[in-house]
Each structure stands twice: as C-alpha cells, then as structure tokens.
Automatic annotation (TrEMBL):
Protein name according to UniProt: Phosphotriesterase
SUPFAM superfamilies in alphabetical order: Metallo-dependent hydrolases (SSF51556)
Organism, scientific name: Streptomyces gossypii
Family per similarity comment: Belongs to the metallo-dependent hydrolases superfamily. Phosphotriesterase family.
Keywords, sorted A to Z: Hydrolase, Metal-binding
One Pfam family this sequence matches: PTE
Lineage, opening ranks: Bacteria, Bacillati, Actinomycetota, Actinomycetes, Kitasatosporales
Length: 319
C-alpha cells in the first residue's frame, strides 16, 4: 500500500491505527460568496481547531484528517502543517477547485495568463502535486473538493473535472468531490471515469444530503466511495435520515464504500463557539450507529480502513 502524503511528509498507512475524518476544513475562507461567517481564519481559529483535534486524538484516537480546502477557498498549507504538528493529528492537504462560484481567474480566464483549457488546468495541478502548495513545500495527498453545482456541471466545472481526472491519473492521487446538496454525483463520476480514472479512486461528496438510496447504491456498485460527510449539520439534513441512508447502503452490501466526516466549514461550528465540532461523529453519530447494530469491525471499516484504501488507491483489504 502506498504511503499517505501528509503535510509533514510521507506516512505509512500502517501507522494509522485510529479513525480518520475523511472531509474537513481546518483553514478556510468562503466569505467572498456573501457569507462572512464561512471562515476558519488561522489567525483567530488555529488555536481552537488545534485544541479540538488534540482532544479527539486523546479521547477517541483520532489519527488523520483529510483537509479539502483547495484553490479559491482560502487554503493555507502552512497553517495546516502547524495545526498537525501541534495537535499530533496527521493532516492530508488538497489541491483542485471548488464549484463555479469560487473559481479563481485561472479557471475563468479572467486574469493575466489565465488558462481555460482543461490541459492548462491539469498542468497547474500536477505542478502543485509534485512541487508543493503555495511555496510551502507541502505536497497535497488528494484532489478535492472538486465541485459542481446542480445535476450537471457547468462548462467551467466540466473543465475542472476533466483536469482533475487527468492529474489524478498522472500522479496517483485520489479525487474527492463536492456535490452540492448531494446532487449530480453520477454525472461527476462519469466525467472522472470517462477520463480513465478508476472509480475506486473517486469519492462522491455530500451524499448524506441526498435522500436517494438508489443513487448511493449505483455509485457504490460502480466502485466509487460514497461520502456521508456532513454529519451533524442538522439544518441541512437530520442525523436520523443520515443514519437510515447509511444503514441502507451497508445492508445493500456496500459498507466498504462509505466514508464519514462532519465537514466543519465555519467557525460557529467549532465546539468553543457552541457548535457541534469535529467530534460530533464520535460523540453522537457513531453511538447511534452502534445502537442500530453496528459492531466494532464495521465502525473500523467506515472510519479507518475505507479512508485509507481511498487515499492510497488500494483495492486490497487493510489490516
């Protein structure tokens, strides 16, 4: 199994013995969309973020966070490296582009030298993957969260998906997506796999916001990972519905395709500000899953072995 690419360098998957949060944000700025609260400012929030992660490592054994803040989302690779070091929790950083509302000029072609061809975008991604992020030397370990908004990607989003597929093929990285409110996941998977990327190297995001077990089964049967990654965001979907959808996928024989996380994407979600925090999965959702009949092996599959297989591109069982 290939090494994980963390912000501190390569890490053997064998060293990850505790759970993984498969879709989170530790430093983020989505305020340009008119939502000034959609921020995790390293200058203000790195300390409480670090404290939360360290507490979860101590209490639940949290071992790894997949941090999916990419280009145009306020990414701060240096902050991620400092948070990982201070918390003792490994962090995987990302590259790519979110959905169209957050595309920078390099995607839209609005700025000097901005390229709009998928080939130009692929070259940019490969440079970051091989050379590091934003002058820090931190190399990303995942392409994500590659976004679309609606049932079908816009032309610009289509180019981003094509570029992400090509960059993943060139570098061996997996692709994690943002499907707005869970919609459009099948179209995302088709775009990525049409480029030659195997489905097992793709995770379709926010499927816990889509109350459609048939779509979840179709994605999983194709070989893709199905992300239940907004756990605790009750204003979008109840955790009771999320639990029902996850159990349906497991009962259909696809427990090995599900990934779990909380997608903390604004500072008011932090525990110190009264929010559910990164630990909601462990404190609330997993106990409910256990009460519904999940055993230790299933919990380990969902929270550790599945994300490790996804991140490394492995099709073999993880011990």
């Amino acid at each position: 199994m290939h090494a994980l690419r963390t912000v501190a360098g390569p890490l053997s998957p064998a060293r990850i013995r505790g759970p993984v949060l498969a879709h989170e944000h530790l430093a983020l700025d989505l305020g340009r969309a008119g939502d000034p609260e959609a921020r995790l400012d390293p200058a203000r929030h790195a300390e409480p973020v670090t404290a939360e992660l360290a507490a979860l490592r101590e209490q639940y054994g949290l071992a790894l966070v997949v941090e999916l803040t990419c280009r145009g989302m306020g990414r701060d690779a240096g902050a991620l490296r400092r948070i990982a070091e201070a918390s003792g929790v490994a962090v995987v950083a990302a590259t790519g582009w979110y959905y169209a509302a957050f595309h920078p000029p390099e995607v839209t072609g609005a700025g000097p030298g901005g390229g709009t061809r998928a080939e130009d975008l692929t070259e940019l991604l490969v440079r970051e993957i091989t050379g590091g992020l934003d002058g820090t030397g931190v190399r990303p370990g995942v392409l994500g969260e590659i976004g679309s908004h609606g049932e079908l990607p816009s032309p610009a989003e289509h180019r981003v998906f094509a570029a992400s597929s090509a960059a993943a093929l060139a570098t061996g990285l997996p692709v994690s997506t943002h499907a707005q409110l869970g919609r459009g996941g099948l179209a995302q998977l088709k775009l990525l796999t049409d480029g030659g990327l195997p489905a097992h190297r793709v995770c379709i995001g926010h499927q816990d916001l889509l109350d459609d077990p048939g779509t979840h089964r179709e994605l999983a049967a194709a070989g893709a990972y199905v992300a239940f990654d907004t756990i605790g965001k009750e204003s979008y979907q109840s955790d009771a519905t999320r639990l029902r959808l996850l159990l349906a996928l497991v009962e259909a024989g696809h427990g090995d395709r599900a990934l779990l996380s909380c997608d903390i994407s604004r500072h008011s979600y932090l525990r110190g500000e009264g929010g559910q925090g990164y630990g909601h999965l462990f404190r609330s959702f997993l106990p409910r899953l256990r009460a519904a009949g999940a055993d230790d092996d299933l919990i380990d599959l969902l929270t550790r072995r599945n994300p490790l297989r996804f991140l490394t591109g492995s099709t073999a069982e993880v011990n």
